Amino acid sequence: MDLALTELQQEIDASVRKVCAQFPDSYWHDCDERARFPEEFYAAMAAAGWLGITMPQELGGAGLGVTEAAIMMHAVSSSGGAQAAASSIHINLFGPHAIVVHGTPEQKKRWLEPLIKGDEKACFGVTEPDAGLDTTSITTFARKVNGGYRVSGRKMWTSTAQEAHKILLLTRTTSKADSRRPTEGMTLFYSDLDRKKIEVKRIKKLGRNAVDSNATFIDDYFVPDADRIGEEGKGFHYLLDSLNPERILVGIEAIGIGRDALSRAAKICARACGVRSPNREESRHPTSIGRELDLPGVGLLDVHARRVPLRPRPALRRGSERGQVPVGSRRLRCSDARRAHPWWHGLCP
Ligand SMILES: Cc1cc2nc3c(=O)[nH]c(=O)nc-3n(C[C@H](O)[C@H](O)[C@H](O)COP(=O)(O)OP(=O)(O)OC[C@H]3O[C@@H](n4cnc5c(N)ncnc54)[C@H](O)[C@@H]3O)c2cc1C
Among residues 120, 143, 173, which one ends one of the domains? Predict the structure, then answer.
């Protein structure tokens, strides 16, 4: 299987890295320490057009797919900003995909254009205190009234709700007990997140503080009919168009962060040891960190599994002049790690 990046994909990787390079470690440190949203980074990514990579071309997006989005987020997460950088823009890529697929032309124009330009931010209101992975057990209810719905319920872990202008909101319009199937009876909305009427309470957490996590309290909040996506009762199925590709991004972002950590560790080790060439490093320090690091192998396996081509040329070889390159093995030697790591092929800075 040829997993080499195409010219376009390499260009995406290089261009995204160019934007990320404007934001040094000190920037991310400051954002995290002050729990401040990385507004400048967000604006720079919007200005360069990256917030619309998966959005329709006729609305100003690039109309590209999950592979290109994964390459973009791999570049973002491995460029120093780690989870903070990734989470600040992550939702833009596939969060609104239910709108791309099921929205009316008027809704797409009204909602997607501001997201692509970076004029509006969206958050994702799915998880609830008593319904995490068991999404069909959500109880947030949208009661039909004249011209719209009255929504009441609680959402949990709503990322960026302190910043977002809009919320993609999964509700029940028929209780689970009264629905023919658990996945029926749910309705999806995309509406204003009016913090004067919806209480958004920040959750304290240990990391990724530049991007807020929240408990969201919705009480008798009016949502107009015009903000409903598709038909009533089919919201769960629409949501899958967002959730499925979104999971690929979550995985690849973690791989990017791991690669960044690995590269930094290797550089620190090389500096500390006064290593000039890979061969010397390995021969002088047989127990060096590279022996313990298996991440590139895991990453590549993940990429293989999902057929998201992220590996640049030249290909990882099975067997080499200096011993095993155990594709599929969870232990790679330092030299193997280098071979698998994009940095050592000059793709990364
Ligand atoms: C930092 C952060 C940001 C987030 N951002 C958002 C966001 O923006 N919007 C949003 O909607 N959500 C968000 N989430 C929520 C995230 O999607 C949920 O954490 C996830 O859906 C899992 O739900 P849960 O934490 O309640 O875990 P649970 O559903 O309680 O699951 C916990 C564990 O139990 C296992 N488990 C659960 N039920 C069963 C069962 N019946 N049988 C066997 N095993 C089971 C699961 O596999 C899992 O390993 C965020 C979470 C975090 C931590």
Answer: 120
Which of 316-326 are b and which e, b meaning 16 or more Cβ less than 10 Å from the residue's Cβ?
A: beeeeeeeebe
**Atom number, ligand 1, closest to the C-alpha of residue 160:** 8
Q: Specify the residue with its C-alpha closest to ligand 1, atom 30.
A: 132
Output the residue whose Cα is nearest ligand 1's atom 50.
157
The answer for residues whose C-beta is within 8 angstroms of residue 260's C-beta and 6 or more apart is: 77, 78, 79, 80, 82
Which of 120, 151, 170 delimits the end of a domain? 120
pLDDT tens for 30-58 read 999 999 999 999 999 999 999 999 999 99
Radius of gyration of the chain (CA): 22
Which amino acids bring their CB within 6 angstroms of ligand 1? 123-127, 132-134, 157-159, 213
Kindly give the number of the ligand 1 atom that is closest to the alpha carbon of 129.
Answer: 26
What region does 63 belong to: left with phi over 0, alpha with psi -120 to 50, or beta? Answer: left
Cα of 141 vs its chain's centroid, Å: 28
Q: How many angstroms separate the alpha carbon of residue 155 from the centre of ligand 1? A: 12
Q: In this model, does residue 332 exceed pLDDT 60?
A: no
Å from CA of 287 to ligand 1 middle: 38
Give residue 132 CA to ligand 1 midpoint distance, Å: 4
pLDDT one-digit tens code per residue, 103-162: 999 999 999 999 999 999 999 999 999 998 999 999 999 999 999 999 999 999 999 999
The total domain count for the chain is: 3
Residues 167 and 194 in one domain: yes
Nearest atom (ligand 1) to Cα of 205? 1
Q: Which CATH number does the domain housing residue 86 bear? A: 1.10.540.10
Domain encompassing residue 214: 122-241
What is this structure's pTM? 0.82
1 is a domain residue: no
